[in-house]
Design a protein that fits this description.
Layout: H1 3-27, H2 31-55, H3 57-63, E1 121-125, H4 130-141, E2 145-150, H5 153-170, E3 180-184, H6 190-204, E4 209-212, H7 227-255, E5 259-264, H8 279-299, E6 304-311, H9 317-325, H10 327-335, H11 349-356, E7 367-370
Parallel strand pairs: 1-2, 1-4, 2-3, 4-5, 5-6, 6-7
Helix pairs in contact: 1-2, 2-3, 4-5, 4-11, 6-7, 7-8
Bound molecules: nicotinamide-adenine-dinucleotide.
Protein name: Dehydrogenase with different specificitie
Family: Belongs to the short-chain dehydrogenases/reductases (SDR) family.
GO biological process, one term: secondary metabolite biosynthetic process
Length: about 375
């Protein structure tokens, strides 16, 4: 609010000075005179501006951060706090994700048939837990067969059985159950990715759609972030997305059939979260978003659509655990969300189904933000 006024006044002073310089330079040959008017008026304008800034606590705070006169309040809610460190837990400390109840099933509400995923085979990376698991459930409920690919194969197998069980409960009397399989892959490793894709094709006969949800975040300030952990983070979030997308696209191109890919980015690819520092994660998710756009263009001629979903703060079993241990962090996060609450994994069920389905046939390269309005403010 104040900065543009200062800038306007400074511009005015400069314009005035340079106008008189041009005028005198063209109408009079006395070059020294022409510049005298600048040097005699500019210092006064500068002093006036400096005085104004010095005497206005808001301007001082705005221009002299971090030691502004507004003390503690200054920038407080808009900065990262380097004392906040959250490590991604080891596997044995990971909470299990429940299968969502009552979101699929037979229903008789009219809706567009275009939203159906019947006769599709979808591969979901990171589908054993969290957002990947709930999105997997949405795809099964919408008629797709499913291959869950995860580092944790045992949990993926368990969840695959539970998804079919839940589907059976919600669709009593239906004879044909969805084919849901579980596979191992470390998404950051090209050989492992290729082996997983080959295994899925051998089990399902083909792959039509892909959702890349394997990913994780950690919090360290940039200076002390252990380098090996940054490489792991970029490996899983960026390489993992790239390797699966190219592997599945190659398979689709060989079959000469259309396909749809949804990459799970994050609102962190568009904004900088506070107060927890996480520069490498933010950069990784910006990469995912732009990878979706770039591949959308590259593969448009092959009828392969590539879109990104950027979730905001979602309440998975893992974020719930982290926030239960850091209630102050939870309150800060919620205070920054226009919707006034965190999202739930179920909030992604419609978004992922839509983007994979024919209802989104002309949508490619889009970034669908599911963030309660976080990135708008
Ligand atoms: N939870 C949120 O609030 C949130 C918000 C925005 C974006 N995201 C993104 O959504 C995606 C899913 O996050 P989540 O909250 O469900 O996490 P999660 O930890 O609950 O689930 C991630 C899954 O990915 C698997 N995985 C991790 N590394 C892997 C690897 N190298 N190879 C194969 N599988 C691997 C894990 O075993 C797990 O099953 C991530 O990309 C995350 O960055 C999450």
């Amino acid at each position: 609010m104040f900065r543009p006024t200062v800038a306007r006044q400074a511009c005015k002073a400069l314009n005035h000075a340079s106008r008189s310089a041009v005028l005198t330079a063209t109408s009079r040959p006395a070059v020294t005179n022409s510049f005298r008017s600048i040097s005699s008026t500019a210092p006064r304008a500068k002093n006036d501006e400096e005085d104004k800034i010095k005497n206005d606590p808001f301007l001082t705070a705005t221009t002299k951060a971090p030691e502004g006169t507004l003390g503690e309040t200054e920038g407080r809610f808009a900065r990262t706090d380097e004392s906040l460190q959250i490590e991604y837990p080891d596997d044995e400390h990971m909470p299990r994700s429940p299968v969502v109840q009552g979101r699929g099933g037979m229903h008789f509400k009219r809706t567009l048939a275009q939203f159906s995923l019947e006769n599709k085979v979808t591969l979901v990376t990171g589908g054993a837990r969290g957002l990947g698991l709930v999105m997997s459930q949405a795809l099964v409920a919408s008629g797709s067969d499913l291959a869950i690919v995860d580092l944790n194969k045992e949990e993926a197998e368990e969840q695959a059985l539970k998804l079919v069980e839940q589907f059976r409960k919600e669709n009593p009397g239906l004879e044909q159950m969805p084919n849901v399989t579980a596979h191992y892959a470390d998404v950051a490793n090209p050989d492992s990715v290729n082996a997983a894709i080959a295994e899925v094709i051998s089990k399902h006969g083909r792959i039509d759609s892909l959702v890349t949800s394997a990913g994780f975040t950690e919090n360290f300030d940039a200076i002390s972030y252990p380098h090996d952990r940054i490489q792991k983070l970029w490996g899983v979030n960026v390489d993992g997305t790239y390797l699966f997308a190219t592997g599945v696209a190659k398979h689709l191109m060989e079959r000469k059939v259309p396909g749809s890919i949804v990459m799970i980015g994050s609102m962190s690819g568009a904004i900088v979260n506070v107060p927890q520092p996480q520069a490498p994660y933010n950069a990784a998710k910006a990469a995912v978003r732009h990878l979706a756009a770039s591949l959308a263009v590259e593969w448009a001629g092959h009828d392969i659509r590539v879109n990104c979903i950027s979730p905001g703060y979602m309440l998975t079993a893992l974020t719930r655990k982290i926030l239960d241990e850091n209630p102050e962090l939870r309150d800060k996060w919620i205070s920054l969300i226009p919707a006034g609450k965190m999202g739930t994994p179920e909030d992604l069920m419609g978004a992922v189904t839509f983007l994979l389905s024919d209802a989104a046939k002309y949508i490619t390269g889009a970034d669908l933000r599911v963030d309660g309005g976080y990135t708008l403010t």
